[in-house]
Amino acid sequence: MFKILTYDNISAAGLEKLPRECYEIASELAHPDAILLRSFDLHGVPIPETVKAVGRAGAGVNNIPVAEYSKRGIPVFNAPGANANAVAELTIAGMLLAARSICAGWDFARRLSGDDEALHDQVEKGKKRFAGFELAGRSLGVLGLGAIGVKVANAATALGLHVAGFDPLMTVESAWQLSSSAVRAASIDDLLAKVDLVSLHIPLNDQTRKIIDGSRIDRMKNGATLLNFSRAGVVDEAAVCAALESGKLHAYVCDFPTRAILGQPRSIVLPHLGASTAEAEDNCASMVAEQVRDFLENGNIRRSVNFPEVVLPRNGGVRLVIANENVPNMVGQISAALGEANLNIVDLLNKSRGDYAYTLIDLNSEVPPKTLERIRSINGVLSARII
Questions:
Q1: CATH number, domain with residue 330
Q2: What is the CATH number of the domain that holds 45?
Q3: Strand, helix or coil at 91?
Q4: DSSP string over 61-75
Q5: φ and ψ at residue 98, rounded to 5 degrees
Q6: Are residues 149 and 17 located together in one domain of the fold?
Q7: Considering only CA atoms, which of 167, 160, 156, 163 is closest in space to residue 139?
Q8: What is the domain extent for residue 365?
Q9: Which residue among 2, 34, 177, 267 is least crowded, i.e. fewest CB within 10 A of its CB?
Q10: Count: domains in the chain
Q11: In this structure, are 17 and 29 located in the same domain?
Q12: DSSP strand pairing (162-166 vs 183-184)
């Protein structure tokens, strides 16, 4: 029986992927095998030594101390792309809100007073303040062409925008899905200089923090619109505010309220609604629950943010699962320990990712406790278990 500790309200659609005859799931329990969460902040929260995996029902993992867990051999799983449609649809809505001054116009209309004749007069006098522009024929730059960015690019193309994109880490899968009419920018600066609207779909990390700063905003067209449905930290808010005040930016649309941005009259700020649809929550929870289950039951790693993708079909018998530092002769030392115990290796798969590696070994007989402890004692082994 595996134990799953949950933080936040995980969608029932995801929890249904964990059969109750094999899994105990609760928001409070001792000695959990895995943790499932959404937005709960795990930084500074001690987790039991029994935890073997952490799964986030969403894409970003800023609320999880990934580096700390990596050192303990704990894979952190997420659900990239599961909320892509929800975020992409909201991004398109953000473009329309900014292009047609809908928020300011709606605020004006709902404050009108008087009878119908008075309303008509006020509307005719005031509507010129909210004149906008059409998206068709304009150009959109998409920074980040993962699951969300590709959907945004394709939807924008269908609306008649000319789309350019930039993503040095774009996958083959994303490339296949991207509209053939989208063009590739040579660099971020090249992208920013060419387009009327810029949409950000990138993770927040040390390389992307404040990637849109004052110097990059200066390279954008005068009156451009910036949309940020990634994370607040990928833009320099002070630079954005200055650009809004000067008119360099026509509008800034984002999903992350801060005091500085809320004070800007031409900002459109939403309360982190990107993945707030029933469908997205179901998809994210289902994806991450399936990944955690496959890891606990078979040792396979799919869509981990800190360990390599390692999937090995079961060949019967016993499976040994090992997370270790990516250092020389690790597989040799593990094999030697198994050989001394007269254990025959049926199948083996080892892959590395950065500073860490992961090994699956199928054996034809049980692993003695002393052999498992010896493997765990090898310098560089972070975790080892038998399935």
A1: 3.30.70.260
A2: 3.40.50.720
A3: helix
A4: -TTS-HHHHHHTT--
A5: -75, -40
A6: no
A7: 163
A8: 308-387
A9: 177
A10: 3
A11: yes
A12: parallel
**95 and 232 assigned to the same domain:** yes
Model pLDDT for residues 327-372, shown as the tens digit of each residue: 999 999 999 999 999 999 999 999 999 999 999 999 999 999 999 9
Pair 357, 315 in one domain: yes
Q: How far is CA 200 from the centre of its chain?
A: 13
The H-or-E segment that residue 385 falls in is strand 381-386
229 shares a domain with 164: yes
Question: How many angstroms separate the CA atoms of 247 and 224, rounded?
Answer: 9
Specify the residue for token string 């390389």.
207
pLDDT in tens, 213-272: 999 999 999 999 999 999 999 999 999 999 999 999 999 999 999 999 998 989 999 999
Domain boundary among 212, 242, 269: 269
Scanning the chain, the segments in alpha helix (DSSP H) are 12-15, 66-71, 84-99, 102-110, 116-126, 147-158, 172-177, 188-194, 214-219, 237-246, 259-262, 278-298, 330-340, 369-377
Q: Domain end: 306, 327, 360, which one?
A: 306
Alpha carbon distance 10, 182 (integer Å): 37
**Phi, psi angle pair for 357, to nearest 5°:** -140, 165
Cα separation of 362 and 220, whole Å? 55
Q: Indicate if 222 and 88 belong to the same structural domain.
A: yes
The reported pTM is 0.81
Render pLDDT for 56-77 as a digit per residue (tens, 0 to 9).
998 889 899 999 999 999 999 9
The gap between the terminal CA atoms of the chain, to the nearest Å, is 12
